[in-house]
From TrEMBL:
Signal peptide: none annotated. Coiled coil: none annotated. This is GNAT family N-acetyltransferase. Pfam families: Acetyltransf_3. The lineage of its organism: Bacteria, Bacillati, Bacillota, Bacilli, Bacillales. PANTHER family: ACETYLTRANSFERASE. SUPFAM superfamilies: Acyl-CoA N-acyltransferases (Nat).
């Protein structure tokens, strides 16, 4: 498997919107997608992604972040977003990196490679240690985070949902 992380462009428009639809249809959130679930207009989403990376026109309590697509053989396999810094809220629950894998592509080792590549990108933007979180019920994500060096710091109760969130730190 040769995965590469690329920035979203018009070239991937149809695949990105199909990815969104798949997650909406199964009632899941496409984590690591810069709120993709809220955008039925690709161009508006892409504009938001560009502003986020530049740090421009950010809503209150938002931070600059870089959006990547995880591509294997020209196909969108997953999304990963790297936040350049943390707010107190992000420090508690969401961390530096959010990611997801297309439901049809799970259990194939893609998440580990995606997160490994994401850590390389995090280092490029100057991060030396990153926080990655997941719901305690998401055993696959917990295993993924541990396989790339995540060390569990603690568990917290989510402020917006009744879930236990595990907080892992990874030294890059």
């Amino acid at each position: 498997m040769t995965m590469k992380l690329v920035r979203p462009t018009q070239h991937y428009r149809e695949q990105i919107m199909a990815y969104r639809t798949t997650f909406l249809n199964i009632g899941e959130q496409p984590y690591g997608g810069s709120s993709l679930r809220r955008f039925d207009d690709f161009n508006k989403w892409l504009t938001k992604v560009i502003y986020q990376e530049q740090g421009d026109k950010l809503p209150q309590n938002s931070v600059p972040s870089t959006q990547f697509l995880s591509i294997v053989n020209g196909r969108l396999i997953g999304l990963i977003n790297i936040r350049h810094r943390l707010t107190p809220e992000l420090l508690m629950e969401s961390g530096h990196i959010g990611y997801s894998i297309h439901p049809d592509e799970r259990r194939k080792g893609y998440a580990i490679e995606q997160l490994r590549l994401g850590l390389i990108e995090a280092k490029i933007i100057g991060l030396e240690k990153v926080l990655v979180t997941c719901d305690k019920s998401n055993i696959a994500s917990s295993k993924t985070i541990k396989k790339v060096g995540g060390i569990l710091e603690n568990e917290v109760i989510s402020s917006d949902k009744d879930e236990i969130v595990q907080r892992y730190w990874i030294e890059i």
